[in-house]
Amino acid sequence: MKYLIRSVKYFFYFAFLTTAIVYALVLIGAVEGNINTIFEGGYNALWKIAIFFALVAAVYPKVGFISRHIAVDRDWNEIRNEAVEYFREKRYVIESENEEKVTLRFKDMAGRISKMFEDRITLTRAAGGYELEGLRKDVWRLATGLEHRLSPDNE
């Protein structure tokens, strides 16, 4: 269900973004305000664009969200202060927390809006460490930094 919701959300995001760009082009006079001159085929082109957006939106959640393993063999209580400080530096705050799972959200509203409120990062206890799940670029950035911060060499 989460996948379907993300797909629909991205479909509307792409449609809104394209509409805003076309509207801006009309406002600055770069293109005429007639749909037949903006797109070859006029209104018929809108269906083709919508189908393209639907295809991209159907695939994007699969490639845009990942889970990455972090090799840290310490309990959450031992690393909590360091991890929370690291996430705070990266502008993430704890949304909920228990022994097995910690969820974080982006602190700034502008950042949350730019990520379409898909800013949740989930840190789950796993065999041999933790699993970090969320948006691909955020997970890679946070996982790499957290592993470095919590590595035994840095203590």
What does this protein look like?
The chain has 155 residues and is α+β, with helices and mostly antiparallel strands. Helix content is 56%, strand content 20%. It contains six helices and five strands. The chain has helices at residues 2-27, 35-38, 43-64, 76-89, 109-114, 136-150, and strands at 65-70, 92-97, 101-106, 121-126, 129-135. It has a five-stranded antiparallel β-sheet with strand order 1-5-4-3-2. Strand 4 (121-126) and strand 5 form a beta hairpin. Helix 1 packs across helix 3 (43-64) and helix 4 crosses helix 6 (136-150). The chain is elongated, with a radius of gyration of 21 Å.
What are the defining features of this structure?
elongated; five-stranded antiparallel sheet; single chain
Q: Would you kindly provide a brief summary of this structure?
A:
With 155 residues, the protein is α+β, with helices and mostly antiparallel strands. It is built from six helices and five strands.
Tell how many strands the DSSP assignment holds: 5
Residue stretches low in confidence (pLDDT < 50, at least 5 long) are: none
Total number of helical segments?
6
Lateral strand order in the biggest sheet: 1-5-4-3-2
Task: List the SSEs and their pairings.
Elements: H1 2-27, H2 35-38, H3 43-64, E1 65-70, H4 76-89, E2 92-97, E3 101-106, H5 109-114, E4 121-126, E5 129-135, H6 136-150
Antiparallel strand pairs: 1-5, 2-3, 3-4, 4-5
